[in-house]
Structure formats: C-alpha cells, structure tokens
Amino acid sequence: MKLLFAHDTKIKEDTIGHYYTGGSFNEDVWKRYLSLTSDFTVMARKEPFIYEEDDAKRRFNNFDNTKIKFIEVPNLSVSLKAFFDIKERKKRYAIIKDAVLNCDFLIARIPSDIGNVAINIAKKNNKPYLLEVVGCSWDALWNYNSKGKILAPISYLKQKKGVEHASYSVYVTQHFLQKRYPTKGLSINCSNVSLINLDENIVNKRIEKIINMQGNSKLIIGTTGAVDVRYKGQDTIIKALSLLKKQGNNNFEYQLVGGGDQSYLRSIARDNGVLEQVKFLGNLPHNEVFNWLDTIDIYAQPSKTEGLPRALIEAMSRGVFAIGTSAGGIPELLEEKYVIRKRKNNQNDVFNILSNIEKDDLIEQAKRNYRVSKDYEKLVIESRRQEFLRRFISQK
C-alpha cells in the first residue's frame, strides 16, 4: 500500500546527505504513518541551503530517508517572478500529479499550497484522501504581509471547499477549525501535540517555587517561535514591558526561544526602552525546551494566527501560568480572563494582565493548566488517531 503525505514543509539537508525537518515534524510524526505501511512518501519543498552536520543535528529533527521516500516540489514562493512563472507552475503541477496518481492513499496537511493541489488531483482521479486541518489559511495569510492579504480570500475558499468535500478529516482543535472549515465527511479532533512523561511532581515543585518567591522577585515571561515572523506577535509583549516600566515596574524579563533575524524585535525593544529586559536565546533542542520552561514564570502565546499551539500546551504541562490571544484554538486551552481578545495593538491588555498577577494566581493556574494538559497525553491521542487512520486506509 502506497501512502503519500503532502505539505509545504521544507526538508533540510546536511553536507553528508542526511535529511532533517523542523518545527513539529519529528520522528514520532513519521512513525505515525510508517506504522500503516512500509511504502511511505513525503512530498514537500526543500531548502537550497546545505547545513553542517553538527549544526543540523543540533537544530533540526531527523528525517530518515532510508525509510521514507522524498519527492521535492519546487518552491514558487521564493520570489514574485517564480510565483507567476507559468513554466515553473506547470512543472510543479506535473510533479504533484505524478505523485498523487502513483499513490493508493493521500494524506494532505492544510493549509498548504502543495496540499491544495494534491487534493484537487485526488478528487479528479478518485484517489482516497484524508485531510489534517492544522490551521486557518485566512488568518495565516492575512496577518503575514500585504501580499498575504491578496492571497488570503483565495486560499480560504480553497481550504473551505477542500475540507467540506473530504471523506476524512482530522482537526487539531476542538471547535475553532471545525466551525470555520466544516466537513460533510467523517472527522475527529486530534491534536498534533502529544505529551509524554506528565508528572505531578513537576507541578508540585512549581508551586513550591511560587510560594518561596519574594515580593520583589523578577518574573520571567517566555515565548517560543521564530523571531522574524511578525504574526507571532512577540512585539506586543515587549511593548507591554515598556508600559510596565513607565509605571515603575521593572520586575519582568522576556525570554525568546527561536531562530531567525532578531533585528526587528531588537529595534522594538530599543525604541521602547526595554532592551535590557529582552533576552534572545536562539534555537533550543526540543528536550532542552522543557528544562527552560521550568525556569520561567509566565508563558505568552501572543500569536495573530494559530491552530492549536504545541508550545503553549507544553508550557501548561509544566504548570506555567499562561496567557495568549484569541487566535485559533488558544481560547480552548486558557481560562477566559487570560485570553487577550484583541490580536493587534493589544499591549494594553497584556499590561493589565501582567500588572495584576498575584502569587495565588500563579498557583491556581499551575494546577489548572497542568490538569488541562493531561487531555493531550500521547497514548490517548495516538490511539484515537491510529484508529481513524486505519479506518481511512481500510476503505478500499
């Protein structure tokens, strides 16, 4: 049985030919599909840059190309010229079409342009396909840049139509994406976040740490995510620090974990007079992120667009007090009073929350957030997902 996975993610390569993936695509994700078949192919883009082996191993997740086949799709988003190049678009379409026609089942993760094209080809050729609905194309593009605002309505309609007519859909949210992109087919909600080693001792240590805080203790806020993607919204936390400083409150430090060009956020911090309170930690290996989470006091998810943020759930599993915007599935995770309803220019809302935090709030949310995170235990989620995937591939 030939299974094809389609998405816009970028495969990375090192100097000796090893492949890697970034973000939430790790070995556990690929094992999910390899458990269904030994003939598994990933169709995605590929970065042109070649990394040093040690650097790639430190920064990215292993992609075992001895077990997984890879089909490279040309990246047309590198420039406007490439995007509107008819010859390149035809070449790209031919690659995707050939891959879809040669598979038995298609799994497309959306929003993604490669996924949308693959879905249309599958429908025309009666190929069974399943959708993983992990985000909102409207929010992602509208909050990206001016070009994104032009493309947002088109991409939204493609995603809406694709999901509506899909026979099988897996949503990462409990409600948000289901309302925005309803389906007439079978569906389940099954987060891409799956936690292991949940431990109440971690929360107990967190509570003990909070109890032992002195009145003037510095509170560390943390966010993980690329620092050069503006819809991640870190600038609003920085601006809120400035408002706190103007009120005489310098007891906050903001730590950012994530790669990318820091210049924009550094300039925001400098212009707002809080550069000394903002620390850029760069990329951290995933296992080290949990150790870092244990050192912070508040986790912030200030995104303008989201599906269901893995980083937020991971922070909650460590008993961290958390705040976030109303984007995507974030309100499904947080207590309502810690949801920032405005997604833009919301530094005043952030300021109001941060300036009113008491010890009791930190303790209460430590218990509450850990309790909510238990809904995302790996064994529970993966069991439900595997049952649904096997139902999908047994339809022939």
The 3D shape can be described as globular
Mean pLDDT across every amino acid position: 92
Percent of residues in beta strands = 15-25%
Which structural category fits the helices and strands?
Answer: alpha/beta
User: Kindly, what is the distance between the CA atoms of the first and last residues, rounded to a whole number of angstroms?
Assistant: 11 Å
Tell me about the largest β-sheet. 9 strands, mixed
Q: Kindly state the number of beta strands.
A: 15
Helix content percent band = 40-55%
Low-confidence segments = none
Would you give an account of this structure?
By secondary structure, this protein is α/β, with parallel strands linked by helices. The chain is 42% helix and 21% strand. The protein is built from 16 helices and 15 strands. The chain has helices spanning 27-34, 53-59, 80-83, 86-101, 113-124, 137-142, 146-164, 176-180, 200-211, 234-246, 263-271, 286-293, 310-317, 347-355, 359-373, 378-393, and strands spanning 2-14, 19-21, 39-51, 61-63, 69-72, 105-110, 129-133, 168-171, 186-189, 219-224, 252-257, 278-282, 298-301, 321-325, 339-340. The strands form two sheets. Strands 1, 2, 3, 4, 5, 6, 7, 8 and 9 form a nine-stranded mixed β-sheet that branches. Strands 12-11-10-13-14-15 form a six-stranded parallel β-sheet, with helices on both faces. Helix 4 packs across helix 5 (113-124), helix 5 runs parallel beside helix 7 and helix 10 crosses helix 14. The longest helix is centred in the middle third of the chain and has 19 residues, at 146-164. The chain is globular and about 65 Å long.
